[in-house]
Amino acid sequence: MSAALAAILGALVLLAVLLVIAIATWTGYRNTVDLLRQKADVMVAAAVDQLHVHLDAVEEQARFIADAIEAGAVNTGDVDDLVTLLSGALAATPQITSIAFVDPSLQLIAAERESPVPVPVFAKLGEDPQWRGILARAAKADRDYWDEVGWRSEYQAAQLSRRAPVHNNGAFVGFVNVEVGIPSLSAIIGGLESDFGMNAFILEGREQVVAHPMMQFGFPNLTRWHPMPLMREVGDPILMSIWDPAARDAQVSELLGAENGHAVQLGDETYVFVYREENGYGGDWLVGSYLAASDVLKEIERLFHAIIACSVVIAVALLLSVWLGRRISRPVRLLAEQSRRVRQLDFAHTEPVPGSYIRELDEAAAAFNQMVEGLRERQMIRDLFGKYVPHSVIEQLLSDKGKLRPRATDATVMFIDLANFTRLSEGLAPQAIVDTLNAYFSGIGRIIEDHHGMITQFQGDAILAVFNLPLADSEHAHHAVEAALAIRTHVAGQLFNGQRLRCRIGVNSGDVVAGNVGAEDRLSYTVHGDTVNIAARLDDLNKTLGTTLLVSAATVQRLADTRPDLRRVGETAIRGKAVPIDVYEIP
């Protein structure tokens, strides 16, 4: 980078700044409106988020109780058990005023928030026609739902009800009724006003006020027939003007350019309303907010002052850019040269970039050098992946700088194969065979890895796995047996590519030799020894004994009496062994 180039770039930056100032001047009014809209949008989004947080917890509690009853975790005939569940849910959700279970005979058991400690309530509602209608709707509902706002004389306040139908084997057995006081929504709106200066509100339809900061401590003169106040009763003159056509500011409303917002003119001040429909809580709600345009005009004025100040600073900076260009050019050229070598993957000739007194260049050099080291290591890993597949082997290779020497150790070996798979595969297409085996191997592999084991070989439909290699595991016998049980359950409990499979498993413990075998450029990490052969023979012995999981006495000795379900088969002759071995089955 030369001084002339730095000067050209500086001039371009100055031109860009001047253009920004000009554009900001010409579009200042539109920016004001956009900021008004954005700020109001943020307010509405915050109000909606708080509303969801407040009421979503109610939905979750209703469904939790319904699920507990449906699952049989709670017996609705055990009043104490049911009251304990309802009281616990009520205590955990402070916005809820009442949680009840109502059966088809309109017998109600509830926990009410009448004191610091939830109070149980028992009632018969069969004579109340309103509750008979509620029961009929709940019985027909196929999902949880919010009902319309209703009046509770006990609290002298409107309540919002969440109802969750409960079924047992497809039959309707009642519903969970959770109530939230409407005044609590005003408390949320009031909290947003005190914390963020938001003027938020919730309307039902165009006239009724569900929530408003002025209603958070209650509202007088509300009744069962008039559970929520009208806008004119709340006493907010700005909110009262929201639908007034005479107050509509057509020019600002047009610039807002959205169906869910408009502006009104009251005296010398313009107010921007933004609102959003929320129809998921039992009524046609409108969550909105308003703010004065003058609040944003001050921010625009400060923005213009900041732009002018920045322009002066940039002009001074341009004078320094030519001088800095010469100082910066040399290390930048060196960085570019080494980067070209990295692009060509020539890591052998890529040299470290020296540091600099300029912090940014010094950090760039350090980051580049770290990147090169990382790429070199990744290239080494890529080369190793062609030879070593298991993840644990890769970790061992990295810790040993790419070398994995043969070792002899005590380990537990598991041999698994599929029963009658040859006969099954004769009726399948080649791709279906591959898909079935891949589905089977994937599940088995995850189970073995979860139990600290490693698969060393896939032989047709058989798997050879080892525990305590290459990473040490003092409980390898226990983990191997647990893995075998999990595999047997896994295979028996599902279909693999639409096929039902059965597996046989043999487990043996003893000395093995682990190491890499194969061609120079394609190695395989596996285990050898008599321990491996016996595990395979035990797997094969399952066919003779009609069993599915056989474990040698050597493995049983290492379990330290942790498996009371072991059944001793007895001493059994093993093909290739002169002396019979003691064999155990896990039914």
Give the class from helix and strand content and strand pairing: alpha+beta
Q: Mean pLDDT, as a whole number?
A: 82
CATH class of the largest domain: Alpha Beta
Number of strands: 20
Secondary-structure topology with pairs:
Layout: H1 3-26, H2 28-70, H3 79-92, E1 96-102, E2 107-112, E3 119-124, H4 129-140, E4 145-146, E5 150-152, E6 157-168, E7 171-181, H5 182-196, E8 199-204, E9 208-211, H6 231-234, H7 237-240, H8 250-256, E10 261-266, E11 269-278, E12 285-292, H9 294-343, H10 359-385, H11 391-399, E13 407-418, H12 421-426, H13 430-450, E14 453-459, E15 462-467, H14 476-492, E16 503-519, E17 522-528, H15 530-545, E18 549-552, H16 553-558, E19 567-572, E20 581-585
Parallel strand pairs: 16-18
Antiparallel strand pairs: 1-2, 1-7, 2-3, 4-6, 5-6, 6-7, 8-9, 8-12, 10-11, 11-12, 13-15, 13-16, 14-15, 16-17, 18-20, 19-20
Helix pairs in contact: 1-9, 2-5, 2-9, 9-10, 13-14
Describe the structure in your own words.
With 587 residues, the protein is α+β, with helices and mostly antiparallel strands. It is 47% helix and 25% strand. The protein folds into two domains: 38-292, PAS domain (Beta-Lactamase); 405-585, 2-Layer Sandwich (Alpha-Beta Plaits). The chain contains 16 helices and 20 strands. Strands 13, 14, 15, 16, 17, 18, 19 and 20 form an eight-stranded mixed beta sheet that branches. Helix 2 packs antiparallel against helix 5, helix 2 packs across helix 9 and helix 13 (430-450) packs antiparallel against helix 14 (476-492). The longest helix has 50 residues, at 294-343. The radius of gyration is 37 Å and the shape is flat. The termini are far apart.
